[in-house]
Amino acid sequence: MSFSTDSPRDPETDVSSEFPFDLKFVSVEDAQMAYPPFKNNCLFLHGNPTSSYSWRNIIPHVSEQVRCVAPDLVGMGASSKPSISYRFAEHAQYLGGFIDQVIPEGKLILVIQDWGSALGFDWAFRHQDRVAGLVFMEFIRPFPTWDDAAHSKAQETFRAFRDEPTGRKLIIEQNAFINVMLDRGLVRKLTAEEKAFYAKPYEKEPLFRWPNEIPIEGHPPDVYERASNYHEWLLETQVPKLFFWAVPGRIVSAEKAQWYLDHLKNVKGVFVGKGMHFLQEDHPHRIGTEMSSWLNNL
């Protein structure tokens, strides 16, 4: 499969900042996890440093076709901030508990990005009989080298994040993920209302822990092993897939997108245009309409 980037689309301009949903809460272990109770089994999983808010313009495109559930990961958004280390395994445990309570049976379509992709792929690998489809973009995989994980300037930033004292100063004290990294992951500029929504609910510890969990060059070993397992499964499974990508992208370049289009089975690739990391904010309506069409053909 091949693609063209001759006429990349600009970010969409009609992106709403409104989040007109009342949150529901479910008790998972020692925490309360928040999610909007959409009426219609599609599970939307966000990444760092966002929340279910990032799906607000996409869900309305498909909510008449499927039941949509979009939780805030534990420690993030409106969910509780328990006193835990926020390592990948703990997030996976809380997510599993959430799914067991809110969607205890039936098939799931996972719509995933960033750390939501790692958690979603990991859950799918361990519950293969429940997976009806995968929709993903800017996804986390095992990175065999730093060069595969990020370009040189980003490497410098993320190496700093993974140094305990420096990372805590940048992320905890200076709030670098909200104040800097969020903007760097977008082409368009967030409105003041959007930026405030992302910033207000945050406990900093999960924001610090996530960059330290990225599976690069075998570290951390437990996360690298889990990512390797789900990545191997992803390349072999016939589960229907919808893969969105953009240029230049952050962790999925055009070259890497082509590699996955050539190696994944039963995949439809959609080039959305100009984008960095948070494609849900730059191209939500394209993602929503393409997803709706794909759902009709499942």
Automatic annotation (TrEMBL):
Highest taxon of the lineage: Eukaryota
Keywords, comma-separated and alphabetical: Hydrolase
Keyword Hydrolase listed: yes
UniProt GO molecular function: hydrolase activity
Ranges where the AB hydrolase-1 domain occurs: 43-284
Keyword set includes Zinc-finger: no
InterPro entries in the record: AB_hydrolase_1, AB_hydrolase_fold, Epox_hydrolase-like
Family designation: Belongs to the AB hydrolase superfamily. Epoxide hydrolase family.
NCBIfam families membership: PRK03592.1
UniProt cross-references to PANTHER family, sorted A to Z: EPOXIDE HYDROLASE
Protein name, per record: AB hydrolase-1 domain-containing protein
Organism in which the protein naturally occurs: Trichoderma harzianum CBS 226.95
